[in-house]
Amino acid sequence: MSTLNRTADTATPPVRLVHLGLGAFHRAHQVWYTQQAEADPATPQWGYASFTGRSRGAADLLKSQDGLFTLVTRSGAGDDFEVISSLVDPAYADDTAHMVELLARPEVAVVTLTVTEAGYHLAEDGTLLHDADVTADLAALKDAVADPTGFTGTLRTAAGKIVLGLAARRAAGAGGLAVMSCDNVADNGPLTRGSVCGFARELDADLADWIEQEVTFPSTSIDRITPATDDSLIADVKAATGVDDSSPVVTEPFASWVIEGEFPAGRPDWEKAGVEFVDEIEEFERRKLWLLNGSHSLMAYYAQLRGHATVAEAIGDAEVRARVEALWDEAANHLQAPELKVPEYRASLTERFENPRIRHNLVQIATDGGTKQRMRAVPIMKAELAEGRDGAAAAFSIAAWIAYLLREGATQEIKDTRAEELARARSAADPVRSLIAALDEELAGTESAVALIRSQVESIQR
């Protein structure tokens, strides 16, 4: 058996992209798209330096393989195996000095992020949230932005790291670049701008002005189902290719990336790989969040309560499928632009969900429901209420989440970045109303909406 390592013949691109949040999705999406976009695969021009979250494990595995990994594209027809080489530098989250050095290079053109919504540390009004991580980073950076290359500490937040790197870039006269979120959150461009600029504004007004003038924050809508890697995937790669790969990634054939925004220092020719550049991304974001992510959340809670473990099992249950279709019907009422091609998108989702060889675990999707449902089900219900309808299908999704948290024996730790808040709501005198309020105060104050959700919770619990 051979191992994955670069040789003298391996085409290795220069690092021109930096990513925060090294994980399976990043590798199956942004890294894969970048490799597909190369004009000449023999002389690639765009390589990624990708930094882990808080764990060093992913970087350790990939460093042992020089950043190479196998992407397994899995469909009902079989598996395709592709070695991805655009990830050049798997790096540790705590190596802030390395990130600063990279961002100061003029050839580095784009920073991408997959850090989850909580990683932006913003309050609901869009202002910087002064939690423990932000407070610690602001204190650590108080003097460091004046001499960014001399910083030797560690930082906890993505915004803090980016601001320090941008301070070094400004000092080096390297010009602007693009900072682009690839997280499943609405308005992720403005969200990223608010986090980075809000952080910079508290440290150095001149630096904040420079960032606002020179740095862009494109918005994106991203889509590709990427289950977690397990030992069976490693064994499958070894059996099929004869290669020992300690860190392969499995994904579905479908992939989508829609981008709105400018790139002042250039970018890969991602459109060559199928990326769609648009003038207005908001409707595409809603289509993805409400149809794909919204149905994922509904299935994550309701289908688990019905004894299912995966998306494929869930969509094969006629009752679950009917609930998904009803949610899609409500969402479609507010996705009317012809270019969204909603009927075709729905058909593609059904086909993807039915893929028997992608084991997309519902328990994985169910994490962080307190954040996800307020972006997925709540906006659909409120849009329906605004047009005089009851939003029953979206209400059912909210009810399924509540019933999941209140299920018998559900006294274990809540897997959510808002776990403490949700635990208090679950223990309140009226847990249904309190959990609705954790998603949306206005909805919790609408008696007809609360009554509808309450009745559906009771129906699910029978």
From TrEMBL:
Report if keyword Oxidoreductase is assigned: yes
Q: What range(s) does the Mannitol dehydrogenase N-terminal domain occupy?
A: 16-272
**InterPro entries, per this entry?**
6-PGluconate_DH-like_C_sf (IPR008927), 6PGD_dom2 (IPR013328), Mannitol_DH (IPR000669), Mannitol_DH/Oxidoreductase (IPR050988), Mannitol_DH_C (IPR013118), Mannitol_DH_N (IPR013131), NAD(P)-bd_dom_sf (IPR036291)
Q: Which GO terms describe its molecular function?
A: fructuronate reductase activity
Report keywords, A-Z: Oxidoreductase
Q: Which class of enzymes does this protein belong to?
A: oxidoreductase
Q: What is its EC number?
A: 1.1.1.57
Entry-linked Gene3D superfamilies: N-(1-d-carboxylethyl)-l-norvaline Dehydrogenase, domain 2, NAD(P)-binding Rossmann-like Domain
Q: Which reaction does it catalyse?
A: D-mannitol 1-phosphate + NAD(+) = beta-D-fructose 6-phosphate + NADH + H(+)
The record's Pfam families line, in alphabetical order, gives:
Mannitol_dh (PF01232), Mannitol_dh_C (PF08125)
Q: Which domain of life does the UniProt lineage start with?
A: Bacteria
Every copy of the Mannitol dehydrogenase C-terminal domain together lies at 281-460
Does the entry feature the keyword Oxidoreductase, yes or no?
Answer: yes
Instruction: Supply the PANTHER family for this chain.
Output: MANNITOL DEHYDROGENASE 2-RELATED, MANNITOL DEHYDROGENASE DSF1-RELATED
What is this protein's record name? Answer: Fructuronate reductase
In which organism is this protein found? Answer: Corynebacterium guangdongense
